[in-house]
Structure formats: structure tokens, C-alpha cells
Amino acid sequence: MFETLQYLHLSNTELRPAHWYEGNHKYPEGNTAESSSLSHRVLRQFTSTLIETHEIQRMLPKSNGNPQPTVIAMQPIDWRRTNVDNGQREARNGGFVRRWTNALMLKNSPPIENPTCVQRFRRALLCPPHGSLAYNLTKIIAIIALFLAFIAILKAEALPGGNFWGLLVVTVCAMVGEEIAKKLRLPGLLGMLVAGFLLQNVPGIRAATSITPAWSSSLRSIALVIILLRAGLGLDIVVLRRLSKSVASVAFVPSTIESCAVAVASHFILGFDWLWSFVLGYLLTAVSPAVLVPSMLALQENGLGVDKGVPTLLVAASSIENVYAIEVFSVLMSVGFSTTSLTMQILQAPIEIVIGVSYGLATGVLFWFFPHNGHPSKSAYRFIILLGAGLTAVFGGNALKYSGAGPLATLIMAFIAGYEWRKSDAPSHKEVAEKLAKLWRYFQPVLFGLIGAAVSIEKIRPETVGLGIAVIFIGVLVRFFVTPFATLGANLNWKEKMFASIAWFPKATVQATLGSKVYDYTTLVLSTQTVPDPYLLRVQQIGIQMLTIAVLCIVITAPLGALGITFTQNRLLQKKKPTELEVSEREFIEEELSGGKDNMVDSLFPRNLPKKRHSEPNMRMFPDEFTFT
Question: Which fold would CATH assign to domain 212-572?
Fold first, then answer.
């Protein structure tokens, strides 16, 4: 850029070589920089800049007292010199490092249209981190920070072999499995289940086995509370009133008939007693809310099946069906072991329903008034008290031996509270739902990773696998064909009925929770007996077979159900039709944007303004003292 600069004139001074101005050198007498028109500081800076970019040859005559200006002749650098000189210059100026640094920066790499996989991968590695790589790195950093904090707090529990260590490994692997499944265009739930299953069953990996049953059960219960709270807030009371009879029909009819079918099949195929055949039937009949509810919430967000109330119908029916299946299973198991009186066994289910409904109604109505609408942080407080009351219901019910009351109370409480919040303060209702959705994103890999880790190949008896799969498919097929008849009062078309049958397919939560109950109880009682009871020994073998079939049921139905919901929802369900208000608003906007005559846009921004000559100024834009010539 200095090639056009040939001479530089400095008045009344002689320019010394560049090194003369470095350090504390002084000028000879009579040639001080103070006599120059440029200050000493400016001159030093100027010559330092020149010496970095040009070669200066001093071609000056000796001072003879003549005040003529001195001249510097400058010659531009020839950048075409030998590679050695250029390499030395680049090394001196840091050009090599700077060139490679710039090549790794995202700002110096413009996006490519239709990039290949290699180009996308190369761009993903550019700095600073961005996109999915930055998102996952942020997760990893957050996990490492929490892990180090928990090591300092919990010590042995957070080290390898402790509960927290196993939980961390299961959660991280479940998150990785979710991302891999999404890349393969499969449900993320499937990847999480597979990750937990591999951690439990791959030889040499003991991370999942370090989690005690108490920790696993508690974490699954917390995740279940979050699911039920989201489901309760998402229930539509208008649709629920219209579908109240259908909800009861869908909740009781398919599960009862499937239980009977499984009982008959297990009696004749596996040789179970009739009592334990029905215990197995009600163990396998409960649909998994952990799989169903998130899928139904996604349908509501996308507006699929909302007009007919399909998500509301299935969510409400699944909650009732789970309570029904758990209660009948508990009653039949109690009858088999005769731990309490038959009267209390029969009355336990109605008692749990009364407790759950009463708690849910009371707390739901209470949350209408606390916090009040004028509270500055009402959304945050509503989220806290709703979550706390749900955890109290579930864990309190387990402590009082009424485990079925907690989930029912949580669902009813969220439904009652959400009804008033939606009506009086819709933005606050939406904020609470969003907070629960964020919390669910963190607990989702925990829940499904633990469910997958609950499946142990060591507990599967090979001779039971084939017969158990046959029993499972008999029950599932019966449910598949019975469910459409249970929805007759819901005014659904055949596609929506088919989707209801598919959505009624996945089973995981109840089976993972109750699958080992019979085996665990018999093992515990036999360990206290000096002479083993022959009846308990026989029931223990039945318990092992039940656990095997429950594991197979999870492995088969949970992934297939999730895949079925994902791939059929857009084909079998209709998109929500816009309301009259939404249609009128859209027509109004389209009319205004179309440029019609005498519309609001034209009135505010007239199109046919009088033309002005370019030379005519708009005097209103300038102050009065401005004049134009």
C-alpha cells in the first residue's frame, strides 16, 4: 500500500536510521526532534510502523546548514523473494499461526448450500463451538460440574460403586442413546431403553447394578409425578365432560378382557393356578404412562386429534386403568399370601380411590387461591407447590400402604388447579406447564434409563421365553381388537379408533415396578423359615416366570408402541381445525396485506402520494433557519 509513496518530507530535521530512535538514544547536537514539525513521539511511532512493512534506505546528504527539507527514498518490499526469506518473515510476524487459526474459526467459513456429510462434520468442529456440538458439550460440562460437587458432598456415594455414580452413568448413556435414536429417526425413548438395558446386561459393566432398588424406585416415582402433573394440566375439561362415559369404557373394558385372556393363556400354556394366572393378567394389562403421556402431550402441541379429544381420552383413561390394574393385582396377591383379612383386601381399592379423589380435590381447589393472582412470582410458586403436593401424594401413599391413591390424587390435583388457572390466568398456566416440561427433559433419561436397567437377562429363564412371548401376544391382540369397541361412544372414525388401539399397546412402568413383587416376597419369607414351605417354593418358581414375562413384555411392547405412535400419528389423526375467531383474524390479516382498496394499511400509509420534483426540498424536514439555493 506504500508503493505509490515515493518521498517523505520532514521540515528542518534529518531522519536517522530506525534503530536510532529505539531505546534512550539522543539526537546529535543541533538535530533534535524538537525542531521538527512532527513531535518526537509521532516520529518514533511512524518510523516503527514503516520499518515493519518497508525497507528504508537512507539517501540523505549530510547537513550543511541549508534549511532545505530532507528526503527519504523508500523502496517497497519485493514479496517474491526466496521462500526462506518469506518463511522467516511469516514466522516473525506470526503469519503461519494466524493463517491456521483463521481457518479454524467459524466466522471465516461461510455456510455451504447442500453440504455433504463430511462438510457438515468439518463445519461442526469449527470454533467457537456451536450447534448440536455446543449443546452436548454444555450438557457434559454441567454434568461434570454437578458430579464434582456431589463427590465433595456425598463422597463414597458419588464414587464408582455408589448410587449416585451409577445414576450418573445411566443418565448420561441414556442421553447419548436418545441422540443416536433421533439421528436414526427413531423415538428417543427407544434409545434410552436400549442404553439402560445394555448397561445392565453387558459383561464387565456394573454401573447400573450399583443403584439400589430404593434409589431406583424413588427416582421412577419422581418422574411419574412429573408425568402425571403434566397430564393433569393438559386435560381439557370440555372434552372430558363430553367423553366421560368413553373414558370409563376405555379404562376398564380392554384391560379387563386382556387380563382374562392372559389368565386363560397362562393357565393352559404355563400351567399356573387360576389365582396366579389372574395375577399375571393384571400385571401385564396396565399401559405405561411413561410412554403414553409424553406422546399424547406432543399430539396436543401439534394439534393432532385434538378436535375429537383423542389425547385427553387416552391420558385420562390410562391413569384410571393404572389404578385399576395395580389395585386388582395387589388384592389378588394379598389373597394368594393371605397377609390381611379378605374384607380389607376387597375394600382396599375403594379406599384408595376415595383417598386419591379427596386429596386431589382439596389441594386443587386450595391452589386456586394460593398464591393469589397479584403475587409477583405466582408462576414459580404455583410450580413449587404443585410439585411438592404431587410428591407428597405419591410417597405418602406408599408410606401408608395405599400406593394406588398417590398417582390418582396427583392427576386430579393438577387437573382441578389447571382448570382455574387456565380460565383466570392463561399465561401463568402456560408458564407452569413449561417449567414442568423443562423438568421432564432432565428426568426423562433417568426414568427410561432405569426402566431399561431393570431388565436383567440373568433373571430370564430360557424355557419360559417362547411360552411367555406367546402369552404376551395373545393378550396384546385381544386388547388391540377390543379397544375400538370400547370407543364407540367417543364419536371417533375408524382411523382414530385404530390409533387408540396402537397407543394402548406399550407397557413398561407398572411391569417394571410390580414384575418382581411375587418373587421378592416369597424369597424374603423363605429366608426366614428353617423348613421351607412347599407352597411358597412353588409360588417362588411362578414368581421367577412372572418376572421373566414382565421383562419380555417391556422389551417387546414399549419400543413397538413408541414406534407405532410415532409413525402412525400423522396418518391416522386429523390436524386441528381453526376456530371461527382464528379464521376471521387470518382473513383480516390477509386482506390487509393483499393491498385492497380503502383498507387500514392504505389509510395509514397512502400509496398514491403526489409526486414531487427531485429538486424540490421538503421544508418540513429541516429547521426554519435552513435555506436552499
Answer: Na+/H+ antiporter like fold (1.20.1530)
The answer to whether the CB of 505 falls within 8 A of the CB of 560 is yes
Angle between helices 289-302 and 213-234 (to 10 degrees): 30
C-alpha dihedral sign at 590, 594, 597, 598: positive
Which residue type, as a one-letter code, is found at position 205?
I
Cis bond before residue 350 (omega within 30° of 0): no
Among 412, 421, 315, 418, smallest CA distance to 360 is for: 412
Hey, where are the domains in the chain?
Answer: 7-75, 83-124, 129-208, 212-572
Query: Residue 423: which residues within 8 A CB-CB, separation 6 or more?
Result: none
The rounded distance, in Å, linking the Cα atoms of 415 and 421 is: 10
pLDDT per position as a tens digit, 545-595: 888 898 888 888 888 888 888 888 888 888 876 665 555 555 555 555 555
For residue 504, give Cα distances in angstroms to 113, 144, 483, 508, 536.
43, 39, 8, 12, 34
Omega of the bond leading into 371 within 30 degrees of 0 (cis): yes
Query: pTM for the whole thing?
Result: 0.59
Bridge partners, 56 (sequence order): 74
